[in-house]
Design brief:
Radius of gyration: 19 Å
Keywords: Oxidoreductase
Strand order of the largest sheet: 3-2-1-4-5-6-7-8
CATH superfamily: NAD(P)-binding Rossmann-like Domain
GO molecular function: oxidoreductase activity
CATH topology: Rossmann fold
Low-confidence stretches: none
CATH class: Alpha Beta
Structural class: alpha/beta
Family: Belongs to the short-chain dehydrogenases/reductases (SDR) family.
InterPro entries: NAD(P)-bd_dom_sf (IPR036291), SDR_fam (IPR002347)
Pfam families: adh_short
Number of strands: 8
Mean pLDDT: 91
Number of helices: 12
CATH architecture: 3-Layer(aba) Sandwich
């Protein structure tokens, strides 16, 4: 019933704010929620909008669509390659922004697979795209956020925001791997023999929330507002890779209860631009702060935050990524 109530909640329009001196970054911006969020952000006329996309051709099509919305824009719209199935691509993307300010970022790219798929780095793809690469990117972008925080801005401009796109499905995670010993959670999740397709997406969104909470505890809200947002179950292609009963159930649910993509996108932009420091370290849904799952809010969840932080940082280090100067 909570799901139905949430899906039927009316999502209001957002009043544009002054972003004329700001840079906005959106991952997965060539389609779906990312593209719709880009449209919404453009209403606030940022100085610069960076579309981070896996496929540059698709990204350039999205840019052309945004540029041809019917009214001229002063926003500089850039398309940059970011393949979150590849750590080297994430690191190269962040390196390309060295010395640039980033005021607002929506880490939106995500996937739901129908089977165990191995990434370029030899890891389970859903885990890498939904958790590990966003975690890496969030660390690599911290200097860009700090630069934005210390730079001059208009009095009416909100403080820098780093927003992770979450999902209400995190509440359904069974996540038996959490009971394993130190250093054993990620190896289990990357083990084909232990893979559970029905639980994987929910688990990745749970771990993503735990990462967000731990990162927020290490960064002052006066410097960067870090939060997570659930856009709701939207009419996107997220579940196109699923199969069997899950695929058909998702199609029926989208038809009956699916939220329009524009409404979900407004939820993203509300969390990433409009909401203030009072949302630091918190989870939003339907444009309101909401309680996470019992696991995330529990003492066990708090312990998992630290354990998973250590495991993720160690794994990234094993892949040759610089994990010095962590917050």
């Amino acid at each position: 019933m909570d799901f139905i109530r949430a899906q039927l909640t009316r999502i209001p329009r957002i009043t544009p704010v002054n972003l004329s001196a700001s840079t906005v970054l959106i991952t997965g911006a060539n389609s779906g929620l990312g593209l719709a969020a880009s449209r919404e952000v453009l209403m606030s006329s940022p100085k610069r909008l960076i579309l981070a996309v896996r496929n540059l051709d698709e990204g350039n099509k999205a840019r052309s669509e945004l540029m041809g919305r019917g009214k001229p824009t002063l926003t500089e719209i850039e398309v940059r390659k970011l393949d979150q199935n590849n750590f080297e691509s994430v690191a190269s993307f962040a390196k390309s922004l060295k010395g640039d300010r980033v005021d607002f970022a929506i880490l939106n790219a995500g996937v739901m697979n129908g089977e165990f798929i191995t990434s370029t780095d030899g890891l389970e793809s859903e885990l890498q795209i939904n958790v590990l690469s966003p975690a890496l990117l969030s660390l690599l972008l911290l200097p860009n956020f700090h630069l934005a925080s210390s730079s001059s801005k208009l009095p009416s401009t909100p403080p820098p925001h780093l927003t992770f796109v979450s999902s209400g499905l995190h509440t359904m995670a069974k996540f038996p791997e959490r009971k394993l010993g130190p250093g054993e959670i990620l190896p289990a999740l990357n083990n084909r023999a232990q893979y559970s397709q029905s639980d994987r997406y929910s688990v990745t969104k749970t771990i993503g929330l735990l990462w967000m909470r731990e990162l927020a505890s290490r960064v002052q809200s006066s410097d960067i507002v870090i939060n997570a947002v659930n856009p709701g179950f939207c009419k996107t292609g997220l579940m196109r890779n699923t199969s069997g009963v899950m695929y058909y159930l998702s199609r029926v649910a989208q038809f009956l209860l699916g939220r329009e993509v524009a409404d979900g996108a407004r939820c993203l932009v509300d969390a990433a631009v409009i909401k203030g420091p009072e949302t630091h370290g918190l989870y939003l849904s339907e444009m309101q702060v909401k309680a996470e799952s019992d696991l995330v809010r529990s003492a066990e969840g708090k312990e998992l935050e630290g354990r998973l932080w250590e495991e993720i940082v160690a794994l990234l280090g094993q892949h040759g990524l610089d994990m010095e100067n962590l917050p």
